[in-house]
Amino acid sequence: MSTWNEGYTTDVQYTSFFHAELAPSHIAFAAAANGFRAPDMSGAFAYCELGSGQGVTLNGLAAMHPEARFWGFDFNPAQIANAQRMADAAKLANAHFRDWSFAQAIEHADELPRFDVIALHGILSWVSDENRAEIIRFIDRTLKPGGVVYASYNCLPGWTQIAPYRHLARQHYLRHPGRSDLHVPRILEFSDAFAELGGAYFKVNPTVSLRLDQMRKQPAAYFAHEFLNANWRAFYVDEIAREMSGARLDFMASATLIENVPGASLPPGTPAFLQQHAAEDVIWQELAKDFACNKMFRRDLYARGVNTMSGPEQAAILGGFRFVLTVPREAVKLTFAGPMGEANGAPAVYEPIVDRLMQGPATLPELVAALPDKNGPNALQAITMLLHSRQAVMYAAKVDPKPARALNKVIAESYFQGSNYGIILAPAARQALPANGADLGLLAAALEGKARSVAEAAAHVSDRLRIAGRAPQVDGQALQGAAAVEHLAAQYAEGFDGKMTIWKALGIL
Ligand SMILES: C[S@@+](CC[C@H](N)C(=O)[O-])C[C@H]1O[C@@H](n2cnc3c(N)ncnc32)[C@H](O)[C@@H]1O
Predict the structure, then answer these.
(1) 215: number of CA atoms within 13 Å, CB side?
(2) Quick check: CB of 19 below 6 Å from ligand 1?
(3) Alpha carbons 216 and 236: distance in angstroms, whole number
(4) Would the pLDDT of 131 be above 70?
(5) Which residues lie across from 47 on neighbouring strands?
(6) Which parts of 414-468 are beta strand (E)?
(7) How far apart are the first and last CA of the chain?
């Protein structure tokens, strides 16, 4: 039983996800689209992630920004060791990990650079009041004037129905000691049986079962870190704003890009209502928006000294971004998942924009020029939605691709060992693309020069899997020999040429 973990789950490690919203260009775009100036992160800058977990996000960002320095702190030494091993495997000289608690990080503040960005993903809702106070002290000591804090957390009112379930799960766990992730199926079994028998809580709070269905699709470790910690709290946005003001931070924008498009993220009618009743006070407006869409999770950007840009300056900054598609033209979807379900993009706006992006990287003015009605706000909204759905990324062009390719090799190789990081780094975009197992196998083949055709890639990956003692699976059956090659070939054939073209354009190959 650990004593250093302050009630945080450490008997099972956190999952290895990359979070695209933490990318400097994503932060810069979210700020600029809302009229705010973010720090200049085009060259050398300093970035810190507090509670960096397995370090996948930080390593990925370090690999795609070789001229900047990245620091990750997490008190779980096993996770820090994994993060450092990943950095070493890709020979990343600019990713620094330390197994420090937030309190220890403050003790080392004088040795650290002043940061342009401090990111906190999945931290604030799961630590004690004292630790949130330490975080604010760390930010106060180490964030530059003009620097940005990214902070995500569970919020209210969206958790109203489910928060009691978290309490029930935690109490159940406390009464059945054992490894937290191994306990997860027992908790789920218990609550399923309870609901089935007509437990009124489950009946009058139907979103609980929906949420549990989503949780079942995640690794048990995710459930353990989400629900079984000693500390768990969902916040109203104004509560976090008040805490952030302790480090002289003000709210800037949401990093969940769809939330910057009211028509796609709020019920019809409410944007005008909110404009009428809450236009002057940004936190009141954010709180009202959270009630409008019953929000559960916020990704906020706070700045130490919020600087609003003039219209021309905003236009110049936004006009400096270039955008490019991440999926072949035929795979682009104009339905976007958001807080109110699916939003549909108007083909009259999106089709010309997607067609323009197909020709190569384009700026916002170039996208506006592609529209028949030359409507700037429409183009900004459309590209925001394409970025949100990860069908487009920002194009950075002049980036040394070698560190990202080295890390991609580590990521692709780990596929043969049974790991799936779920990403491929795109150095020319300084962003990671979502990737499934088939993509990672194909990438491994391509990096070894064995993907000149679908057949060559399939044969190569099948061979590599066999040597690693693994095989493609269908319905729990391991496929061998020709059946394995055929199965892989069918997966790779879909959009093969388009994928290779995009991977080359984004510096992946
Ligand atoms: C939910 S995980 C998020 C990890 C990472 N940010 C991500 O999104 O993948 C929370 C992390 O905070 C770390 N943590 C919790 N309390 C901490 C503390 N007091 N000091 C340092 N790290 C802490 C945990 O070890 C864990 O890795």
Answers:
(1) 23
(2) yes
(3) 27
(4) yes
(5) 70, 117
(6) 423-426, 431-434
(7) 46
Does ligand 1 lie within 6 Å of residue 101's CB atom? yes
CA distance to 210, 485, 491, 499, per residue, from 457 (Å): 39, 9, 11, 13
Angle between helices 454-467 and 437-447 (to 10 degrees): 100
- Return d(Cα 423, Cα 420) in angstroms, integer: 8
Q: pTM for the complete prediction?
A: 0.95
Predicted local confidence at residue 293, as pLDDT: 93
26 burial type by CB count under 10 A (0-12 exposed, 13-18 middle, 19+ buried): buried
Rounded to an integer, the average pLDDT of 437-447 is: 95
Region 462-483: what's the mean pLDDT?
A: 92
Q: Write out pLDDT tens, residues 21-36.
A: 999 999 999 999 999 9
Alpha carbons 45 and 34: distance in angstroms, whole number? 22
Write down the architecture of domain 20-155+234-259+297-303 according to CATH. 3-Layer(aba) Sandwich (3.40)
Candidate from 11, 74, 225 with most ligand 1 atoms within 8 A of CB, to mutate: 74
Reported as a pLDDT band with limits 50, 70 and 90, residue 88 is very high
Ligand 1 centroid – CA 328 distance (Å): 36
Helix axes of 402-416 and 437-447: crossing angle, nearest 10 degrees: 120
CA of 123 to the centre of ligand 1 (A): 6
In this structure, the chain runs to a length of 509
Ligand 1 probe mutation, 2, 3, 6, 8, most atoms within 8 A of CB = 8
Average pLDDT on 293-322 reads 95
Task: Pull the structure tokens for residue 297.
Answer: 């999770």
The structural domains of the chain, with segments of one domain joined by +, span 20-155+234-259+297-303, 163-227, 327-389, 402-505
pLDDT at 4: 76
Tokens 């920002």 belong to 394
Q: Which residue is listed with tokens 């095989």?
A: 471
Reply yes or no: is the peptide bond before residue 347 cis, omega within 30 of 0.
no
- Using pLDDT thresholds of 50, 70 and 90, give the confidence band for residue 2: low
Residue 269 backbone class (left: φ over 0; alpha: ψ -120 to 50; beta: rest): left
Pull the structure tokens for residue 11. Answer: 């008997």
Task: State pLDDT tens for residues 195-206.
Answer: 999 999 999 999
DSSP state of 93: T
Structure tokens at 229: 């910690």
For residue range 206-236, list pLDDT tens digits in order: 999 998 999 899 889 889 988 999 999 999 9
